[in-house]
Design goal:
The chain is of the alpha/beta class and 305 residues long. The protein has helices at residues 39-56, 74-84, 91-103, 140-143, 151-163, 200-217, 229-241, 279-284, 289-304, and strands at residues 5-6, 13-14, 121-122, 128-132, 183-187, 223-227, 258-262, 268-274. It has one domain (5-304): Uracil-DNA glycosylase-like domain (Uracil-DNA Glycosylase, subunit E, 3-Layer(aba) Sandwich). The strands form two sheets. A six-stranded mixed sheet has the order 3-5-4-6-8-7, with helices on both faces. A two-stranded antiparallel sheet has the order 1-2. A hairpin with a 5-residue loop joins β7 (258-262) and β8.
């Protein structure tokens, strides 16, 4: 853990990685938040979060992360968010995210790095859910918020703002005033991976966190936007694990494709696909602003229907 440095927007000094409960914007974890140290811990804690949500709604605890028919209990979602943000189940990812947080990129050498898993953020009763791959090493891993502090975020939040899903057209740091409208952003893998490539084992170890978050928020979701094939596939796997029905033949990822996915309680959710707003895609013109705007505008229209 490195010498505390001032938060670039709000002041206050923080170590890198940031300690739970030290006052970082939007950090809901505390020193007492349970820490998952292996995949079995992740599975258990994720299941407990969904069971607690069912009890809060007056229902019986679900057996295996089954999606309920009630909107998420805010306390259950906050508890899940806190536990995700302190997870240490994947040794390679823990070492990488903390090494990056300690060594830093030269341009960010004077500020603290979050250096922990990056949880979902946004509305706790979203009508639109956006699913990405994983936080960027010097983006979400630095700022503590998905798609924040990097060029991908400038593209995503710019498009979200243009279609009415985000309050501003950029996001520099947690605590910068950005707010999402009836939208939540999550990732298939919550730690920044080396070369943006988690292993299959790391993907599977992290999957219960995504399934639990899906179980908590799906009752209000009408449209899901998958950014890239990784998020697309992760969402389909999560829905199958929750008892949802995926069309046959299985939908194939391509930009602009739509698929109707039936939830375990019989509702239909529309899955929309977009190329990821990575520099590789935006610099080459594979993804344009108009293309991204069109997918997000479609999600907004479904959410408002």
């Amino acid at each position: 853990m490195s010498e505390p440095l001032p938060h670039p927007l709000l002041g206050g000094r923080f170590a890198s990685p940031v300690e739970p409960g030290s006052g970082w914007p939007d950090d809901v974890a505390t020193p007492a938040t349970p820490v998952a140290r292996d995949p079995a811990d992740v599975e258990r804690q994720a299941a407990d979060a969904v069971a607690a949500d069912a009890l809060a709604a007056g229902a019986h605890p679900p057996g295996a992360l089954a999606a309920g028919a009630h909107p998420a209990d805010a306390a259950s979602l906050a508890d899940l968010t806190a536990q995700i943000s302190v997870c240490r189940a994947c040794p390679r990812l823990v070492e990488w995210r903390e090494t990056v947080a300690h060594d830093k990129r030269r341009s960010f050498a004077g500020e603290p790095y979050w250096g922990r898993p990056v949880p979902g953020w946004g509305s706790d009763r979203p009508r639109v859910l956006i699913v990405g791959l994983a936080p960027a090493a010097h983006g979400g891993n630095r700022t503590g918020r998905m798609f924040t502090g990097d060029r991908s975020g400038l593209w995503l939040y710019g498009a979200m703002n243009r279609v009415g899903l985000a309050a501003t057209d950029g996001s520099e740091h947690a605590g910068d005033g950005q707010r999402l409208t009836a939208t939540r952003i999550v990732a298939a893998v919550r730690c920044a991976p080396p070369d943006n490539r988690p292993t299959t084992a790391e993907r599977d170890s992290c999957a219960p966190w995504l399934r639990a978050e899906l179980a908590l928020v799906l009752p209000t979701v009408r449209a899901v936007v998958a950014l890239g094939s990784y998020g697309f596939d992760a969402f389909l796997r999560g829905m199958r694990a929750l008892g949802g029905r995926v069309p046959s033949p299985r939908p194939r990822f391509t930009h602009g494709v739509e698929a109707a996915i039936e939830t375990a309680d019989g509702r239909s959710v529309t899955l929309l696909a977009s190329f990821h707003p990575s520099q590789q895609n935006t610099f080459t013109g594979r993804l344009t602003e108009d293309m991204l705007d069109a997918v997000l505008a479609r999600a907004r229209s479904l959410a408002d229907a």
